[in-house]
């Protein structure tokens, strides 16, 4: 296969893994967790649906983050699935080393508690299980409530860039 690279040293495998993950496209979401009575935002792409019955999903957070500590403590989190209009919120939630309290930003949705403005959906979850894997903590969350907003093009992250995903026609 043209352009094929097979690497097998641990350093080379790590570098190829990082490049593979960087190129992969993923939907952008914000985890909202309560910290000291306030809502903290963390941008992620590492989440997926696990089950429809009961509605269950998983999120993965760096073990060393304020968000992971807050979710572990409260056993709850919200997940705002972002549309393209929410790119500023995604940038806010991904700023390393910065306070990410939503009440100090313009990114909180005015009508839905804990939801990020520009989300096309928001899911509130109760933690069912958590698991430490390498330098991350995986949370299994049972969806306890859900809100869907008007259709919006989803925000996607790939190759260190945000972009939109054009809407498709339902059949």
Automatic annotation (TrEMBL):
It comes from the Bacteria. Keywords: Oxidoreductase. SMART domains: Flavin_Reduct. Residues 21-164 form the Flavin reductase like domain. InterPro entries: Flavin_Rdtase-like_dom (IPR002563), NADH-dep_flavin_reductase (IPR050268), Split_barrel_FMN-bd (IPR012349). One of its GO terms (molecular function) is riboflavin reductase (NADPH) activity. It holds the Pfam family Flavin_Reduct. The keyword Lipid metabolism does not apply. Belongs to the non-flavoprotein flavin reductase family. This is Flavin reductase family protein. It comes from Gordonia desulfuricans. The lineage of its organism: Bacteria, Bacillati, Actinomycetota, Actinomycetes, Mycobacteriales.
């Amino acid at each position: 296969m043209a352009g094929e690279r097979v690497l097998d040293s641990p350093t080379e495998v790590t570098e190829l893994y990082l490049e593979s993950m960087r190129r992969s496209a993923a939907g952008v979401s914000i985890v909202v967790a309560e910290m000291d009575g306030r809502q903290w935002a963390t941008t992620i792409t590492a989440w997926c649906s696990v089950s429809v019955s009961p509605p269950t999903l998983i999120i993965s957070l760096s073990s060393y983050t304020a968000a992971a500590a807050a979710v572990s403590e409260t056993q709850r989190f919200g997940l705002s699935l972002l549309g393209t209009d929410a790119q500023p919120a995604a940038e806010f939630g991904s700023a390393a080393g910065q306070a990410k309290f939503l009440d100090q930003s313009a990114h909180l949705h005015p009508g839905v508690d804990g939801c990020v403005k520009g989300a096309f959906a928001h899911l509130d979850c109760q933690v069912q299980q958590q698991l430490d894997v390498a330098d991350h903590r995986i949370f299994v969350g049972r969806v306890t409530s859900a809100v869907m907003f008007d259709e919006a093009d989803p925000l996607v992250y790939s190759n260190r860039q945000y972009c939109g995903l054009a809407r498709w026609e339902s059949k």
